[in-house]
Amino acid sequence: MPSQNPTINPLQNQSLPAQAPPPIPPQPPAAQQQPITPQNTPIYAGFLLRNAALFLDTWIASIPSVLIAALLTTPIALISGEPLSQAFGKPPISIIFNSLAVILIWSYFVLTTYKFGGTLGKKVFKLQVISEDSAPITFSKAIIREIPGKIISGLILGIGYLMVAFSKEKQGLHDHLAGTHVIRTEPVTGRTKLAVFVLTIFPILFLVILVLLVAFPIFFAFRAKTTMPVNKPGLTQYASPIPKKSLVSTAALSRDAQRKNDIGLLATELEGYKVLHSNSYPEDLSALLVSTPENPSPLQALPVPPNNSEPQANYGYTKCSTNEKQEAILYTKLEETSHYYVWSSAASSTSLSASLDKPTCP
């Protein structure tokens, strides 16, 4: 049987060509950072808008304070029978109330700013507090902004708050200290403008008008009393109705005030002399001018009584010695009442003598 030769495929021993790799799908282009344009730039909240929100927050934060005051004072007033005003004015109640009020107000501003990005007043006016990098405000920044920042802004006569009106990015001093901005989340509408006017501009205008209505009548009434027209032939003058005696009395009171101050100064020096000299007062006031090792810085000069035209107007000094201890008295005659103003070491105080006679040792 003849052998059968298999058919040899000429392509069998040839290597097959390598298949081309599948095409790589095109990658999406990398996201490019959107440039800052006027359309996506944050709109900073102005002074009037923020002031209206603060005014509203003040009313909101005061509600818990009023409730606490009522809870603290009402039971005490009912038990003691005192009016609420007197019960509230007692030191324990007032101290507790002031402490709780401060804690509540600060907690309100800090927690709402941190948790919601703004207080309730800011939310009403569509405002939000953010960091300078546009990130949400952190708890530490909320504390710095609302407590020390606003305290400093208020202590410098409110200049820290007024900086909002003149700052390019509408930042107050407390915003600079905490690194924050206050932005608008929605455009200002007509209702918002009306609310700002009612909460800020209208109260200011009302206060100014009220002050003028009260001040003008007082001013004209005072002018009518202090200036009286005196008609003379061909001449109109104004004469003051203030009597000469009133002017003299005012000057006398001023001189008496200086006499009282001088008596207080001498009394202080006498007590210091007594401590340095074994509980002994000097024989006369000139000893207060002597420099000693115990008192290297004495008085440079004794005070001189004002309008010292009468001998009885001089500052009097008497050393009173007893078997047990020494006492001293200082006195001067007041010009207005003709009574003596007396300092006594025994009483350690000054008083106005009821007698017109010169004081003596008891």
Automatic annotation (TrEMBL):
InterPro entries: Pra-immunoreactive (IPR051791), RDD (IPR010432). Its main location: membrane. Residues 19-29 have a biased composition (Pro residues). The chain crosses the membrane at residues 59-81, 93-114, 147-166, 194-222. It comes from the Bacteria. It is found in: Cell membrane. GO terms for cellular component: plasma membrane. It comes from Candidatus Curtissbacteria bacterium RIFCSPLOWO2_01_FULL_42_26. Residues 1-35 are annotated as: Disordered. Residues 1-16 have a biased composition (Polar residues). Residues 44-179 form the RDD domain. It holds the Pfam family RDD. It is a multi-pass membrane protein. This is RDD domain-containing protein. Keywords: Cell membrane, Membrane, Transmembrane, Transmembrane helix.
